Amino acid sequence: MILHVDMDAFFAAVEQRDRPDLAGKPVIVGADPKGRGVVSTCSYEARRFGVRSAMPIREAFRRCPQGVFLPVRMEQYAADSRRIMEILGRFTPLVEPLSIDEAFLDVSGCERLFGPPEQMAQRIKQTILEETRLPCSVGVAPNKFLAKLATELGKPDGLTVITPERVQEVLSPLPVERVFGVGRRTAAVLESLGIRTVGELGRAPRAALVARLGPAAVSHMQDLAAGRDDRRVEPHRSPKQLGSERTFEHDVSDVGEMRRSLLALSGDVGAGLRRQGFTTIAVRLKVRTEDFATFTRAMRLPRETASDRTLYRAACHLLDASMPELPVRLLGVAACELRTGGEPVQGTLFGPPPEEVRAARVDAAVDSVRRRFGTQALRPAALVSKPKPPKAP
Amino acid sequence: MLDPAPSAPGPTPNPMRFSCHKAELLQAVQIATRVLPSQTSEPLFLNLLLTAESGTLSVYATQHQVSLRRQMPIEMGEAGKVSLPGALLSDILQQVQTSRSEGVDFSVDSERRIKITSEGAHYRLAGIDPEGFPELKEPGADKSLVVPGALLRDLIKRVVVVNSAAGGASYDEVLFEVRDATLALVATDSVRLAAARHAVAAGSPDVDVRLPLVTLAELGKILPGEGDVQVNFGSHQVSFSFAQTVYVARTSDKSFPNYRSILPKDHPRFATVDARALGDALKGVAPLARVNKHRVRLHVESNRLRITSTSQEVGGEAERLVDAEVKGDPIELSFNSRYILDFLGVCDSEKVKLGVTAGSLPATFRPEGADNDYVYLLMPINL
Asked: Is 0.90 topped by the overall pTM?
């Protein structure tokens, strides 16, 4: 059996725990409500006002002006995340973290120690609550897809079990969007074929679907619709990508400003890669224009890198090749095929070292300065804004 | 319109005749043909020149970079000279070795037809006009050095292992230097540098020449283990004379990096290990290093070297431990294991001393107790 553990409104819950005066209030963690960023997480109280994750923060402010808007305290959340993952590790070594606040556990064979899976799920919920004072929801099911679905069905503070016998009963009435991989576009295609529920998707003739959606996607969807998912819990799976994005204060048409933004974003991504010991072989650029149309462009690199400069060059290349006509609202840079270890470069006795090596030395030096003096201590000159003229006395 | 030039009549070929020991002749021809290129646009260079004169046969081969003349005693018939394809002669003489006689008769008639005879074995082939065969230019003995053949052979062996440019500039010549009565041979392929040194007779002249690495490697293969070698330095050539052989190499005028400036004076860490154990450990982790271009990780620990290799492709890892006498703090570096094995193959020492500073600076490998005789500098792999 698989357990899926997901913290409830994680960032907001951490804030409410640390500031008891916020209990029961709509808490919205994210960007500056006067700015143009987005909501990271909001408490269930805020959700009642229609606030959602990833919603533009101003929209959240419009819907819930009485909400408590707080900045993201990632270090605190990361510390709580580590405690939670450590707790999960006490129950089974087969813990696969999915994100900062979510994990799969394979508990097959742990019954002798911790009792039946439902009982174990209860103990996990209780232990996390006792040790971190944070609520979570747990789903118990025969596979990953169903376990995650069970969690969603029970949120918040839920414990939902989908036994093999109940799979069809639970799945059939759900809308097709609940199937992983079915987005808005696929859902529209399915709807045009008269398919709205998971049950209908499972029963639909394969040939009719394949003609519209392709064989691989259909096999995947119908497997999930039937409750079949044989992905294993992989405890050491590394994250697949690492990115950073930024919404501009005002929509931008100036290429120079876009490049400066890419420089900053590439620096964030590079620093993140190096901190975690990753390199990447591919870079993705994300662009959102003023009309909210969003597109991404990706390229593979000739060799693995964790260098700010190489990431920046690739991002600029992608931007140049797909320069949007409309002003840009958001830019994002992501390292999208992560590797561990890095590609080695044979050093040479004479002449300058290879460029990758020089770039790595610069990055390492910058990283060490920032670790001591803070991330703002050393930045590319292009990112330093002009000092304000001193005020007249 | 001009008439086609009449073919030069040339002097009537002299008949030539000699007898000699068949194995000795084969050896002389085999050594001489070594300098012939296997492929060339100049067919002349595929030929040998044989000259019989006053009881001595000279077998001479030449090409752009090197020339070789080998002499041997013969039983004179008639003096003369002839040119003929070296590879073919070598092949024939190899087959002649199975004849019943120890001797072989060699003759050229006035039509320049060659006859090679040993009891029960007869070969005929057409000879080539020896006129125009480039002459051997042998530098004079004004500037010369005498070294034992075995010593020169060992020095060459220790530097010519450095012969693959794995990146960056490649230097395909060897520095041949005499300074303060010390002979130093230095080779580098920009990833590693080998410097082999030994004292030579006091009063030896200071010299500084560069020779193609392949030329020196070939010389190393034919140098005898006994007797001395006289080395004469000319303006563009260096000759090596030993046991009836003269090997003349053209010097290179390409620049050689200033190797003294990159030899580390000292290291913060040293590890002394058994050479064989280190070799076994490096080979031991090879199965998982192969896919990574032989990259291995060397962990210098408090009393041992830990050598590991990992392969993400197959998801595997190998580890071998070698006892070591370590001075300095622990450190980890990556190397191409083949380059270390190259050193171990020629260091001729029971124990070797490894000096390391950092992952981005060259490490040194030396035979223990003979620090100055041989230094093998190797750049780590940067991660």
From this structure: no
